[in-house]
Design a protein that fits this description.
By secondary structure, the chain is an alpha/beta fold. Helices cover 30% and strands 23% of the residues. 53% of the residues are buried. The protein is built from 20 helices and 32 strands. It binds 5'-O-[(S)-ethoxy(hydroxy)phosphoryl]adenosine.
Length: 644
């Protein structure tokens, strides 16, 4: 065990009152996939020739045809990686394991909320995916077609994603908590040909039914813009489900007679693999497009290095498949490394707050990757629950999505990790596809910091003009070189891709986060610089929140700002100007809270609605959200970081 010691950067930056550092454990270092010497060599190689670094990472995976050029920058910022290469991520997740001892190893351990469980070996998962891939082909789905998947964490969700990628289609997973309106927007934006869902699923002791939501969403579609030809429904809760003849099919019926072998489509490295919609800086959610080749290289390398995956690991990333974490590190990444993946259907506190620990001890989980919100929630229930379970199998812990406050970090480290498990606090985004800034198990850790940029990633903190700021000074987080698993575009909006990400700070990728670096080069993330609210790690743009509240007839003007929430990191506060003549204005805050939840789904957590006479605005009429936020936090407007 190692002892905390004071860090000299305390005094240097003065931003962190109390800081501890934790030296790497010798038993972890001696067995790490990447030794300190290899790490130093990788940093050196990446600094002198980052393309060579990523080329070496690409060589660890299977390709149908080798690339001719690692990176084409001729049309920057529209970068192309592994140009001329042919591949398919599913080949690396499944096909190539079938010829190795992994064939009969467990790929997926799934547990339903009621406690039922299903397990798949790599060979079984491979065969299920093949059957569903053939079924999708029979429905007429072709490479490049878009498939929306509206399901919670079920084995069929994994099968649907992999089968879609296998046939070269592009999946867009929509979080099952989203409303019909949000689902319709995403189906329409992706011009999806098929939607895959389930009859019902278990969440917090209830059966939720997504199929009627799909039906409502399809009714809202403008048929000139999108035509969904097929809806596939997997059985889960066996509840009564409306089915429309011709359009709707049961998953089981489609796969029943399909053969267990299917061709893996040979894709160009740059062909799209999936879309994910997330809130960007401006207005509506944006469709981030990720490509087969670069995505698999970046995710595989970073998972292997950061989580130090061993053949014996049982890896659990608690994320929902509807978020990028659920794509990169709950499904694609761990399957590429040949790990055994755990997936859980339900609510983390059901039937009580020991569920996570029960899962860890039931399956002997070795690596647990969660979010600060989840840890803070569990911390609120004290140490009795974790103490009641054998958590000794855990050897590494991870965090993502929000700043991990040192208090919760220490709880995770001491109570869950017994001071034996390093915590990998990974900074990344839907846009980046992979970890960008993160410690490795061999790194010195500072609670609350995400460590240093990984090899091949050049990150910095700059001012609004792009000039690097000195250590200890807050600035904007930028990435100075392209990386393989970067998003390739915003679907059908190349102008916004350039404007929002590549032109704000010339020559750099603008991440939208405020951060500072200490004297040792460790990064400390402070939160978003833009009008994006990060609720429990889920990004929602203020424009999206405001348009939801404004669709209520009694709200005429609205501003949404993120305010601190002790568990979720942030929640939303609305300032609303009510319609003159609106009745029951006293009750309007509660009415609007419920309304927003219904419009956007349960992750739009509204802390308060304040009815105001007017909103502060710039002379050009732009709402001054920063002024409202500063007032809310008891700060001056200039104390808040941001671009404008
Ligand atoms: C925030 C999630 C602090 C950040 C993978 C980023 C973090 C946004 C961390 C992306 C972290 C992510 N520490 N903040 N370790 N990781 N963030 O696209 O503000 O859902 O810009 O991707 O989450 O959220 P997204």
């Amino acid at each position: 065990m190692h002892t905390p010691e004071p860090d000299r950067s305390d005094a240097a930056c003065g931003l962190q009152k109390e800081e501890q550092v934790f030296r790497p454990l010798s038993n972890i270092v001696s067995r790490a996939n990447v030794t300190p010497q290899e790490y130093a060599a990788a940093l050196e190689l990446a600094a002198s020739d980052f393309k060579a670094y990523w080329e070496e990472a690409a060589e660890e995976l299977g390709w149908f045809k080798r690339w001719e050029n690692v990176l084409d920058e001729s049309e920057a910022p529209f970068y192309r990686w592994f140009v001329g290469g042919r591949c398919n991520v599913v080949y690396n997740c499944l096909d190539r394991h079938i010829d190795t001892p992994n064939k009969n190893k467990l790929a997926l351990i799934w547990e339903g909320e009621p406690g039922d469980s299903r397990k798949y070996t790599y060979y079984e998962l491979y065969r299920e995916v093949n059957r569903f891939a053939s079924a999708l082909r029979k429905l007429g789905l072709l490479p490049g077609d878009r498939i929306v998947i509206y399901m919670p964490n079920l084995p069929e969700t994994v099968i649907a994603m992999l089968a879609s990628a296998k046939i070269g289609a592009v999946h867009s997973v929509v979080f099952a908590g989203y409303s019909a309106k949000a689902l319709a927007e995403r189906i329409q934006a992706a011009e999806a040909k098929a939607v895959i869902t389930c009859d019902g699923y278990y969440r917090n002791g209830q059966v939720l039914k997504p199929k009627p939501v799909v039906d409502q969403a399809l009714e809202r579609l403008d048929s000139r813009l999108a035509e969904v030809e097929h809806v596939v429904v997997a059985h889960r809760a066996h509840v009564e489900t409306p089915m429309r003849k011709g359009r709707d099919h049961w998953f089981d019926d489609l796969v029943r007679f399909e053969p267990p072998e299917a061709l893996t489509e040979v894709m160009d490295a740059e062909d799209p693999l999936f879309f994910l919609y997330t809130s960007g800086v401006a207005g509506k959610p944006k469709g981030m497009v990720h490509a087969h080749g670069g995505f698999m290289v970046g995710v595989h390398r970073t998972l292997d290095w950061v989580f130090d995956i061993k053949p014996t690991d049982i890896f659990w990333c608690t994320a929902d498949a509807g978020w990028v974490t659920g794509h990169s590190y709950a499904i694609y990444g761990p399957l590429m490394t040949g790990a055994t993946v755990v997936m859980y259907e339900g609510h983390p506190l059901y039937p009580q707050a020991d569920r996570i620990w029960r899962l860890v001890s039931r399956y002997g989980i070795t690596i647990l990757y969660a979010s600060p919100t989840l840890i803070r929630m569990l911390m609120g229930f004290g140490v009795e629950f974790p103490a009641a379970y054998d958590l000794s199998t855990l050897r590494l812990l991870g965090s993502v999505g929000e700043t991990f406050n040192p208090e919760a970090w220490m709880w995770f480290y001491k109570v869950i990790g017994r001071q034996q498990c390093p915590i990998m606090d990974t900074w990344w985004q839907t846009e980046t596809g992979m970890f960008m800034i993160s410690p490795l198990p061999i790194s010195l850790l500072k609670p609350g910091s995400v460590g240093k940029p990984l090899p091949g990633v050049e990150a910095d903190i700059v001012d609004g003009a792009g000039k690097p700021v000195p250590p200890g000074v807050r600035g904007l987080l930028v990435i100075k070189k392209p990386w393989p698993s970067m998003f390739r575009e915003l679907y059908k909006d190349p102008a916004a891709y350039k404007r929002e990400y590549w032109e704000k700070i010339p020559g750099c990728y603008y991440a939208g986060d405020v951060a500072w670096k200490d004297e040792d080069g460790y990064f400390w993330i402070q939160g978003r610089a833009d009008d994006v609210v990060n609720i429990a790690g889920h990004r929602i743009g203020s424009a999206e929140l405001e348009s939801a509240v404004l669709s209520h007839p009694d709200a005429v003007e609205a501003a949404a700002v993120g305010v601190p929430d002790p568990v979720r990191g942030e929640a939303v506060k609305f300032f609303v100007v009510a319609r003159s003549g609106a009745e029951n204005v006293d009750e309007l805050p509660e009415v609007l809270k419920a309304y927003v939840r219904q419009e956007l789904g349960p992750m739009a957590v509204v802390q308060a609605v304040e009815i105001v006479d007017s909103l502060p605005k710039t002379c050009s009429g732009k709402i001054l959200r920063r002024a409202l936020k500063a007032r809310e936090l008891g700060m001056g407007i200039d104390d808040l970081p941001g671009l404008d």
